[in-house]
Give the backbone structure.
Amino acid sequence: DIQMTQSPSSLSASVGDRITITCQASQDIRNDLNWYQQKPGKAPELLIYDASNLETGVPSRFSGSASGTYFTFTISSLQPEDIATYYCQQYDNLPLTFGGGTKVDIK
Amino acid sequence: QVQLQQSGPGLVKPSQTLSLICAISGDSVSSNSATWNWIRQSPSRGLEWLGRTYYRSEWFNDFAVSVKGRLTINPDTSKNQFSLQLKSVNPEDTAVYYCVRGQWGNWFVPWGQGTLVTVSS
């Protein structure tokens, strides 16, 4: 199975801050990586697909990038409504696997 | 707009079978560009993909090794839905279960509302 190592597991930042979450794959997955946002009590929602493509309707402050097996998710200016847990997910190989999640809250 | 509506019991006894249904609106279970997945989430296991069914001129299934042999996923074209059956459940199968469409088989959108299933006597 491909292991997705996500960090940090949690972070606290101020409104307006730029935050970055990383995900490292245990082997080459090309750009076959997605990012999801999950708010408490809700199902995850797709934000970014194919490492860097913004899902329709998702604000442009969210972005993703890739470098080898290392993937980065960025919120350019943190907003109160961004409080959530964020997950990466690879689809290069079965079984489809997720990172452990990053819980983001406001300082 | 594609929507998935889950139904099924929230409490299952150990050794029994967990059964859930996912009704699809706005797409077809026979779509050639989608896969139909079950994913569960628990504090101990995080988000865990369980398996999928999809149609590409014929029906295919894929399953996670952790549940292979216990899990069945069946499409129902007459009702445009798909189901999950997990046999011989134990308390470790306690989780929130989601049905999810795999767009082009690759990214998950949308998700069902989730069903908390507790395995307990």
